[in-house]
Amino acid sequence: MNKGEVTVKLGDSVRFGNYSWRVLDVQDGKALIISKNVLEKKAYHIEHCDVTWETCTLRQYLNGSFCDRFDTEDKARIAEVKLANNPIPWFGTSGGNDTLDKVFLLSGEEVVRYFGDSGRLENPDKDWRFVDGRVVHKDECDSENIVIGFIDDQYNIERMAVGFGGEHSYWWLRSSVERGCTVIVGEDGRIDPLCVEHFVDDEDGGVRPALWLIL
After folding, report:
1. Least confident of 29-33, 69-73, 138-142, 206-210
2. The model's pTM
3. With the CA atoms of 26, 171, 209 and 181 taken in that order, what torsion angle do they form, in degrees rounded to the nearest 10?
4. Are 75 and 67 within 8 A, CB to CB?
5. Who has the most CB within 10 Å: 27, 73, 135, 199?
6. Within-domain flag for 8
7. Is residue 99 part of a domain?
8. Are 113 and 155 a contacting pair, CB within 8 Å?
9. DUF6273 domain: from which residue to which, for each copy (predicted)?
10. In a domain, 206, yes or no
11. In angstroms, rounded to a whole number, what is the distance separating the alpha carbons of residues 112 and 91?
């Protein structure tokens, strides 16, 4: 898609660089786009530790090597924007400082905003607990264990993404939690705020870059 070539609207599919993208938002002469599919698999961070979007190695990669895949003309159309890195409201943890980015991952709030809001972000299912690396029902454990608040709703299908080989893949969000975890969208489209089966250093995490494209 060349600059000024077409008028885009929400839900459109566009070609930019060597990738296909979905238009999530249009405002002030820019379009927020996300890759239609998982483009590659990569760890959120190089090691298993508590990390925020600001300090993770995936952010460095997306704004460095990945961004450099675009030619000079296309790269000039990628706007640098300030991102609010708010925490998922179910945890009393920090999402880290706001950042300036050209290429980024969506946050938990943004996925709900652009893929469908069932109200579950503020009112999650709290029947599950995180115990010794496992998810168990609240009736089977101490009430003091960490609450797991999945978002499993009618918008799962909208959030599902195809990876390599045509199979569905989980994909990273930038919202960090704690205990070496960040938020993911699962293979089934469910939003998992503690990614109990996938830690930040897992190298099979799906990457769906997003960016604001100057029209």
Report:
1. 138-142
2. 0.86
3. 110
4. yes
5. 199
6. no
7. yes
8. no
9. 28-213
10. yes
11. 17
**Position 143 pLDDT exceeds 60:** no
85 contacts 99 by C-beta, under 8 angstroms: yes
**How many domains, in total, are found in the chain?**
1
HEC readout, the chain: CCCCCCCCCCCCEEEECCEEEEEEEEECCEEEEEECCCCEECCCCCCCCCCCHHHCHHHHHHHHHHHHHCCHHHHCCEECEEECCCCCCCCCCCCCCCEEECEECCCHHHHHHHHCCCCCCCCCCCCEEEECCEEEEHHHCCCCCEEECCECCCCHHHHCEECHHHCEECEEEEEECCCCCEEEECCCCCEECCCCCCCCCCCCCEECCEEEEEC
Flag the least confident range among 36-45, 73-82, 181-190: 181-190
58 has a pLDDT exceeding 80 = yes
**Any domain includes 192:** yes
Q: Residue 178: its pLDDT value, please?
A: 65
Alpha-carbon torsion angle 34, 86, 43, 130, nearest 10: -120
Note whether 106 and 34 are within 8 A (CB). Answer: yes
pLDDT tens digit sequence for 111-129 = 999 998 876 566 655 665 5
Give the C-alpha separation, 172 to 16, whole Å: 21
